[in-house]
Fold these 3 entries.
Entry 1:
Amino acid sequence: MNSLYGLGKMILMFGLFMVITGGVLMLAGKFTGLGRLPGDIFIQRGNFTFYFPIVTMLVLSLVLTLLLNFIFRR
């Protein structure tokens, strides 16, 4: 029974982390233009829309890598 408690706690923490991360990304998109960088692929034809934020993903990956390396290398 104790292992289920730990698993439940871990799932709740992951969910909370995802909600916070989603909120930060939504706010960052409004204030910084993140998500509409040059190089992001956006195709709109009729009722079809395709959006692939390749440059945004690369920038976020770089920033998060640097941040996590700074935090965990201490």
Entry 2:
Amino acid sequence: MTTLAWTDNLVLNQPTLDTTHQEFVELLNAFGDALDAGDDALPAYHALLTHTEAHFAMEEDWMARCGFDPQNCHASQHAMVLNVMREALRYANELNDREPLKILRTELAGWFPQHAEMMDAALVFTMEQLGFDPTTGERREAAVAESASAGCGSGSCGH
């Protein structure tokens, strides 16, 4: 059973982020496949967690370079997800309780598309507006003077 299908709805037309998101979906599916097969899912989960940490760090670096407040709602959501992922790993390792991993699989599959379509799409929009190039880390100087995003880049997020 596929945990989360990669669809065009997840494509944000930002090549680096789209590749990273596709990798996340593949790793989530590999983790789900290990659970379904009754295999030890911890190696697949470790790979997913390691990828997610790097994935979120990349986005947060972009946010910092685009002038987002460090405590913005997008980064806060990342922190909450990582905290839950790490806590599920702690349960598995220290308490030999794998149930949180199974629950997290379903929760991540439900959370990720919404996060990508809202938070990440807003980040991509902000990057485009600023002329930010994630490859070089540079942005157009004219846009820099005009902007300072304290929120998540979304119009629905308070500053």
Entry 3:
Amino acid sequence: MSENSHDGDSGTGSTPAGDPVCGPDEDPHAWIAPLISSVVTVPLGLAALLYGALSPMECDSCNGEVVERFHDSWMIGWTVLWIGLLIALAVLIASWAVPHQLRYAARRVSLALAAPATVVVTFVAFMALVDWP
């Protein structure tokens, strides 16, 4: 093996400018925003899902027209809750999937902030849609 086996490396230990793995545009802190978003979004989404699933017990003592109105509105709200939480999950996954380059930092942070905001907006929509007794 020859002494110059690094093919263009001058022996300084630096990576070439065109290296796609560790380029100069690489963001070393790209994982922070998606991680914080995951830590907030996942428990918040699970709590919203749990509350939505247990909310029919609110109308256990209801009867007649009240229970029918509640059930019909709860079914609509439950559907909206599920769709909204799936959208929040997709946004969270997108925040992890954004390339780890500095030029995409704003997009990554925006998606990371949008995920828990989507959960909150979805839960508020669920609460507004249900005709509570």
